[in-house]
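Model the whole thing, not chain by chain.
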Amino acid sequence: MTTPLALGVLAGAVLSGTSLLYATLGETIVERAGIVNLGLEGILLVGASVGFAAASASGSPWRGLLAAAVAGCLGNLLFGWLVVTRRANQLASGLAMMFFGFGLSALVGAPYVGALITGLPKWRPAWLAAQPWVASTTLFNYDLITWLALPVAVLVWWALFRTRWGLGVRATGESPAAAFASGRDPAVLQYQALAAGGVLGGIAGAHLSLSLTLTWAEYMTGGRGFIAIALVIFSKWNPLRAIAGALLFGGAEALQLQLQARGSDISPFLLEMSPYLLTLLVLLAWGGARRLAAPASLGRTFYGSD
Amino acid sequence: MAEARTAQALRTAARLGLISAAALAVFAAILLAAGKDPLKAYADTFSYTLANAYGFSELLVRMTPLLLTAVAAALPSRLGLINVGGEGQLYMGAWLASAGAFMFPGLPWWLLLPLVTLLGFLGGAAWAAIPGLLRAARLVNETIATLLLNYVAPLIVSFFIFGPWRAKENSAYPQTSLFPEAARLPSFFDTRVHAGLLVALAALLAYWLLVEKTRWGVSMRAIGGNGEAAQRLGIPVAAWIVIALAVGGGCAGLAGMGEAMGVHGRLRPGLSPGYGFTGFLISWLAGGRPLGILFMAFLFAILTSAGDTLQITQGLPYSVVNILLAMILFIVLARRPARGGAK
């Protein structure tokens, strides 16, 4: 691999990996609380369309970002009402959220197809820009969301593993009955985890439309929600390991785009398959280990607090 | 006995009617909030579908792939497996059937038609066998694997449509040239209703016979009830997992074959507006019951027609209709808590 290609892939890996990382972190929190949200794909789509629509209508990408975070949060709370309050089946409810996201994002985004927006501003520190190997690339030329990606990952890790709240969330995911017995309310903790996860999911979606593509198109998330769910397994429900996973998948996507931009002979359709096939391969390789690392009560409905 | 059954069926129908009405009301409110006219949309949908013979025939056209993708989800669901990959399996069925039609254009129809039908089935079956094998080997959960493969199959189809199979005569549109006449499914009475409907009804009948009338159906129920116990009774659970997913995927592949050979006459990108996903919904709402699938497929043919209406008369994308489908799911999920934990 030539140096410019490698640097291009690296720069692209960070940019495309950003939204994957936020989505993975959000799902990690939710799954640590014992809930699988297959509707993440829908939340990403809603974040992308609401963010784009709000940015276009208000002229400010920041308002778009805020609107997307709120929309993602509300979407996950609706999901929470189904699976926590109504105790509905999590997989079916997640798929229902996926359909809801498909439809709602199409409805919200329809008037904004082809609209032009100002994206999230990008900058790089002057001392980095002065480096000769950086200057000719897009390396380190990132928006705030990308710059904050690593700190947010550390923050999520800290919140889950170093705070009383995180202990409660993880206890709920392992054994809601034990969490309940120790004076915690599993339902409240699950709602809180879902709200936090929804905010991160909304931001993940908005980063795609407000920074990466600067357009809205139906189904533009292209399965990133499902890739993120696989990344949670890959990272063994650990926010710090999720960083490596997001970079790996961002890298696959960036390599594919770089090859296309350089006029590679390989069909773009075949290149586009690579992230999905890579995801399957990763799940395959991690298949045996996952059962040990997963929260013990993941996907189970808790009836105990009646 | 018969009376009790009729009463039960009536109650089910009434409940379904109420759920649909509630979902339609919520969807109307959302459309209204978006500045659209829901009443006109509903009235248009009614007059395009149920009010005349042609509209009704179009419902049957739409029902054809829905029946098959519903069976594709229902058969594995008997084993407790979740096949959300009907969409990808549909595309692969259409792809392999098309390959057959292009490879043997000279065959007479009585050879070519069975061949493309078989290939359609095999394309979907092979695609679904991948998650089946991964699940049987206890490596990857079939839900996430089938979902991911949905994104790969249309790319394979697009590769061929934009590449080796692209029609030379009209290159403005990315599509293949027309299939040989002998590979086209015959249609009935000047409508677009094609022989695929018979294939779909036959598949549903075969599914009913399989699960209700054979020993295999008993084995499947045993695995769905308690896989470990079934294993100890000597039922080859791993083989059943692969077979159920593959045969289900084959049905979805037949749906793709029907769309290509019956409706479009050629292979195009965007072959399916989410029939695979809708079929999963139908099967889930019907609880995998054959008669329920027939009924729900008809209902969902009407509901998804609303998507076309929205597109034509209200300038909204077709996918907005997914909100309506989600509302039905939400209502059903919220009023029927899954007692006894996740499945």
